[in-house]
Amino acid sequence: MSFQILLNLFLAFLWMFLSSNYSVSRFIIGYLLGLVVIVALRKFFKSRLYIDRVWAVIKLSVLFIKELILANVSVLTLVLKPKLELQPAFFKYETKLTEEWEITLLSSLITLTPGTVVVHVSDDSKSLFIHVIDSNDIDETIDSIKNSFEKAILEVSRS
Amino acid sequence: MTILANVLVVFLILCGLLFLVVAAIGLIRLPDLYTRAHAASKSSTLGVMCILLGVFFHFWLNENHFNPTILLGILFLFITGPVGAHIMSRSSYIAGVKPWAGTGRDDLKPEIERMKKEQNLK
Lengths: 159, 122
Prior knowledge:
heterodimer; A: mainly alpha; 2 domains; B: mainly alpha; membrane (chain A); transmembrane helix (chain A); transmembrane (chain A); cell membrane (chain A); monoatomic cation transmembrane transporter activity (chain A)
C-alpha cells in the first residue's frame, strides 16, 4: 500500500518536471493522472489498490461520528428521564480481530457507541468484556452494531 | 454570511453546553461508577468537541484566522476520551469496586478472579 502511494507521488513529481511548472495545481493534476495510471495497472500490484483502503477509512469515520451522536442522544434521554430505567450487565464479546491496533480501535468504537463501555480485554485478546447500561433489549442490537464495526475494521485491514 | 456563521457557532456551542450539563447531571444521578463512566465518557467527549468546533468556526469565519491547533485538540480528545473511561472502570473493577445491586449478568467476575489468582494478587 505504501509502495503505491510513493509511486503516485513519484508520478506527480514526474509530471511537474515534464511540464516544468512547479506549482501546487500542477502537482495535483499530476497526482490525479498518476492515480489513473495506477488504477489502470492494478493487476500488476500484489496488494489491493490504496484508494480502496482510503475509502474504507472514510466510511469507518462517518460510521464513528454517526454512532457518537446517537450515543449522546441515548445518554441524554436516559439521564433526563424522571425515572431511571437501568439494567446494567457485564457481558463477554468474542472478537475475530487479531492485530493489536484493530482491537484498540474496536474497543474505542464500542466505548463511544450507545450504552456500552469496554471494561476489560482478556489476556489472549480474544474477548472483550463490555459493561452495558440496559441489557433488556439492547443485547441483539449491540451485537449487530458491533458486527458492522468489526466488518468495517476488517475492510480497512484486509490486504 | 455573518449571520449564517454566527448561527453555526451559536448552535455548536449550545449543543456542547447541553451535552456537558447532561454529563454533569448523569454523574450525580446514576447509581454506580460503571454507569457514571458512560455519561462521563460519551457526553463530555462530544460536548468539548462541539465547543472547540464552535470556537474554531468563530475564529475562522468571523475573524479570518485559521487555527489548526484546535482541530488537533479535537483529534486528541477523540482518541483519549474512551481510553480514559476504559482505564478508570477497569482499574476500579480490579480494585474491587462493587457494581450496583441491579446489575444483571456478570461475565467479568470469574475472569478477574482467575487473573488475580494467576498473578498472586489479593
